[in-house]
Amino acid sequence: MKTFSKLAVLSALLATASSLALADTISLGSFATGTTAASLGFSTTQTAMNFAGYTATSSAPMSPTTPTILHGTAATYALSPNGTWLAPIGNSTWIGSSPSSAPGSATSPGYGYYQFNTLFSAVGGTYTGTLNLLGDDTLEVLLNGTVLVPFGGLGSDSHCADLGPNCSVVDSVTLNNLNLLPGLDANQLTFIVDQAGLTPNANPSGMDFSGTFASSIAPEPSSLILLGTGLLSAGTMFRRRRAL
User: Fold this and answer.
1) Are residues 117 and 50 in contact, defined by beta-carbon separation less than 8 angstroms?
2) Nearest to 139 by CA among 173, 113, 100, 108
3) Residue 218 CB contacts under 8 Å (≥ 6 apart), including other chains
4) Is 178 within 8 Å of 138 (Cβ atoms)?
5) Is residue 15 within a helix (H) or strand (E), and if so which, with residue range?
6) In this model, does residue 171 exceed pLDDT 90?
7) Which string of DSSP letters, residue by residue, matches the chain?
8) Residue 192 to residue 60: CA distance in whole angstroms
9) With pLDDT > 70 as the criterion, what percentage of the chain qualifies?
10) Fewest Cβ atoms nearer than 10 Å: which of 16, 34, 69, 111?
C-alpha cells in the first residue's frame, strides 16, 4: 500500500517538474566573429553577429526606412568606442562591418544601411523581454522579419541620432507577446544600422546590444495528464485504505 502511494506522489512530482522545465530564459548580446556566446555568459546557442550586407544610398538617409532584408554571413569586427560612443552594455561588444568603422578611423563606412544578424534557439511560444540598444547613427531591430524597434530620429545628426536608439544613451525597450519559434537557431534578430554621417567615409558606424527573453508557456497536455493520473492513483489508494 505504501509503495503504491509513494509512486502516486512521485508521478505528481514528475508532472510538476516537467511543466516547470518548459520555462525558457534566453540571454543575448552582440559579439564579433571568432568569439563564443558561452565565453561572455550569453545563451550558448546564440551565434556571433554576421554582417548580412550593405544597402548604399547616394546621400545621407535622414528619414530612415526599412531596406530589403539581406542574408549574407560575412565576418564582423569588435570595435572600440574610443571615447566617442558609450561603453558596451555589460558583456556585449560594439561590432561593425570592418575594423575601420570604429570612431577615430580615417575611412569609415559610406552612406546607407548596414545589416547584422544573429541566430538563437528557443523552446518556442510566447515570451516577454527587454532589449538594450546602442547604435550609430541609429538602428532598427527585427525579429524573424517583423520590426520590434524602429529607427530613432536623427535630428541634427551632429554626433549620432538625437533620439534612441543612438550611441550616447542606452535605449531599453520592453517587449511583450513575442512569438519565438522552437528549435536550434530557429530565431533571427536583424539589426539595420543607419549610416548618415555628415560626410561619407569619415564617420563611425556600429551597433551594440544585450537582451533577455523569458517564456510564459502553459504546461503541456501530457504533463497535465500525468499529474491527473498521479492524483487519481493517490485518491484510489486512500479510498481502499479507508475501506479496509
Assistant:
1) yes
2) 113
3) none
4) no
5) helix 2-20
6) yes
7) -HHHHHHHHHHHHHHHHHHHTT--EEEEE---TT--SGGGTS-TTPPPPEEEEEEE-SS--SS----PPP---B--EE---TTTSPPPSTT---EESSGGGSTT-SS---SEEEEEEEEEEE--EEEEEEEEEEEESEEEEEETTEEEEPPPP-TT-SSS-SSSS-SSS-EEEEEEEEEEPPEEEEEEEEEEEEE--SSTTSS--EEEEEEEEEE-PPPPHHHHHHHHHHHHHHHHHHHHHHH-
8) 15
9) 78
10) 34
pLDDT in tens, 45-85: 999 999 999 999 999 898 999 999 999 999 999 999 999 99
Question: Which residue type is seen at 120?
Answer: F
Handedness of CA 104, 159, 86, 61 (dihedral sign): negative
pLDDT given at position 23: 82
DSSP 57-110: -SS--SS----PPP---B--EE---TTTSPPPSTT---EESSGGGSTT-SS---
pLDDT band at 11 (very low <50, low <70, confident <90, very high): very low
The set of residues, in sequence order, having a beta carbon less than 8 Å from that of 141 and lying 6+ positions away, is 131, 133, 147, 148, 149, 189, 190, 191, 192, 209
For 184-205, what is each residue's pLDDT tens digit? 999 999 999 999 986 766 789 9
